Structure formats: C-alpha cells, structure tokens
Amino acid sequence: DTRTPPPFDAIFTASDSEFVSRMLERITDREALILQLRYGLSDRRGKRMTLKEIGEKVGLTRERVRQIEREAKRKLEEYVKEYM
C-alpha cells in the first residue's frame, strides 16, 4: 500500500516529534509558542507563520518576535550540543 509509510519512516517521524517536544519543554512557553507557530509545529497541516502574523497573534512587534525566535534557537542549539 503506497499510502502507508514504511515502518522506518513512521518510527523516525515519531522519534523526531518526541525529540522536538522534549526540546521545546526546555525553553519558556512564549519561546516555544513562537517556534511552533513559526515552523508549523502546532498545525497539523504544517502551516508556517510569518513574523508579522505571529506578532499580531501574540500581541508583539515582528521585531520582538524575531528576537525571541533567535534567543530560543540559541538555547535549543546549546541543549542539542549537550544532548549529542
């Protein structure tokens, strides 16, 4: 059945999702929300939002959203380095 992903792909995807969830728990709720919206992690369709759209949704300027995104990614990069 071509509609069903191979078992390796299904496991890999679940593993990735679990890893991302664990990483998002290590940053603030606001940082996690911004990354989820920015990269489509909170939407089943994977819809990514622009900085402006996120700013309007959470009541911040797009520049502030960009700053928060940058800081959250820096923190996650440090955690990943520790994890590996």
What topology does this entry show?
Layout: H1 7-24, H2 29-38, H3 51-58, H4 62-83
Give the topology string: H per helix, E per strand.
HHHH
Distance between the termini: 36 Å
Proportion of helical residues:
55-70%
Structural class: mainly alpha
User: Unreliable segments (pLDDT under 50, ≥5 consecutive)?
Assistant: none
Largest sheet: none
- Tally of DSSP helical segments: 4
Mean pLDDT rating = 86
Tell me what portion of residues adopts beta-strand conformation. Answer: under 5%
Apparent shape: flat
Q: Mind telling me the C-alpha Rg? A: 15 Å
DSSP E strands, number: 0
Description of the molecule:
- By secondary structure, the chain is mainly α.
- Helix content is 69%, strand content 0%.
- The chain is built from 4 helices and no strands.
- α2 crosses α4 and α3 crosses α4.
- The longest helix is centred in the last third of the chain and has 22 residues, at 62-83.
- It starts with 6 loop residues before the first helix and ends with a helix.
- The relative contact order is 0.13.
